Amino acid sequence: MPVFSSDILSIPTRKLRALFKPKGTVYYGWWIVTFAAVIQFLCSLLWMQSYGAYTVVFHQEFGWSMTLLSGAFALTRVESGLLGPLQGWLVDRYGPRLILSIGLLLFGLGLVLLTQVESLLVYYFVVFLISIGISLGGYHTLMVSIVNWFQRHRTKAVSCAQLGHCLGGLSLPMLAWGLEHQGWRMMAFFSGVIILVIGIPIVQGIRHRPEDIGEVMDGGLPDDLSLNNKKRNTKAPSPSWKQSIRTSAFWHISVGHSIALLSVSAVLVHLIPHLTHKLGMGLTSAGFVFSFISIFQILGVICGGYLGDRFNKRLICVCCMIFHGTGMFILAFFDEYPLLILFTMCHGLAWGIRGPQMVAIRADYFGPESFGRIMGISSLIVMFGMIGGPIICGMVVDHYGIYQNAFLSIGIISIIGAIFFYMAQKPDFSTT
């Protein structure tokens, strides 16, 4: 029998120690990642991934059409996209902690005000307020924080933070049960209190850049790196945001990202209504089906962190777009339970693997210095995908009574979207 020495068995431990404790203590950047994961968990569970469940109860109580309910979600994405450039500048200028605090305050107050909704106009106003809060206090601001703290382990760090979003979706059956048995007003009120009492204190631990507290990116280089590796990881000057947006790569990534979010937004808003209204499931049962997306998304995020730091991120995104499209085809044509699980696998893996690449590939191509503004300007393009998915599905189901044509169209567009990622070659700024 082969004998394994203690040295061989200790290799994984040494690698983990070099990753998380490069100087003997836990690198503060990983605490930033932890805080970001918790905030993404709260935002995901309490609104982003539960919006589809809310639409079911609003449709039942108020009789609002799916187009009107989708329009509210689309309006929030317009606001988020238009706010993006200003938000990016604010984060780059004032740091993420202040912006996150303001955003979570608005988000929490918006959820509390949601309990008072009686009319569509008030509903649109409250959702608009929630959207401003979740935009300032959520994904983009958190990703800017992480990009500033990591270089070599950037994709891993982004993946770990996005696990919070996945776990929020995994917990959706719990919130769906609350909506079904305790009422949506009570759930909205307690959700707002959770954001105010837990979310705001957590973000006080987030810092803008490692040099603000005497750290360096990645926590310093481990002792066993060669001199060549040290030189390779020396941070080069980043291109300006003006240089970045002039490149074809910026536009190809932004359009590809927008197309990817067609399927993501359609599923977020319309999967649960599709399962409840068209397939006859209860709200809690539909929430369990939705949670399978999160299970596969978690697997995808873990794989995405590993793959993104080792292989071509652009080609990874191409494969993910094909999986997004395949998932939508399955959802369009089949309603048997095993095939619904196959849909959740395709969609969840594609979303999970692709998600970290969206941040990491932009940071690799354009650097961290103006990352907030670059993400903000890109959001002006990306928002069209978040708007289009819900609106297309809402109009189709209100007109035809079924989702099939909408899901099929989005699946075809997703496959086409792979072309944009394929064309997104890394720009050469040495000649500019």
Describe the protein in words.
This protein is mainly alpha-helical and 432 residues long. It has a single domain (25-211, 242-422), classed as Growth Hormone, Chain: A, CATH 1.20.1250.20. Helix content is 78%, strand content 0%. The protein has 19 helices and no strands. The longest helix has 31 residues, at 248-278. It is globular. The chain starts with 5 loop residues before the first helix and ends in a 10-residue tail after the last helix. The relative contact order is 0.15. Mean pLDDT is 86; it is low at 1-11 and 222-233.
Give the radius of gyration: 21 Å
CATH fold field value: Growth Hormone, Chain: A
> What's the architecture, going by CATH?
Up-down Bundle
Number of strands: 0
Question: What is the CATH superfamily?
Answer: MFS general substrate transporter like domains
Mean pLDDT: 86
Number of domains: 1
Global morphology: globular
Tell me the structural class.
mainly alpha
Main β sheet profile: none
Which percent range describes the beta-strand content?
Answer: under 5%
Order of helices and strands: HHHHHHHHHHHHHHHHHHH
Helix share, percent: over 70%
Q: What is the number of helices?
A: 19
Task: Give the C-level CATH assignment.
Answer: Mainly Alpha
Name the poorly predicted regions.
1-11, 222-233
Distance linking N and C termini: 61 Å
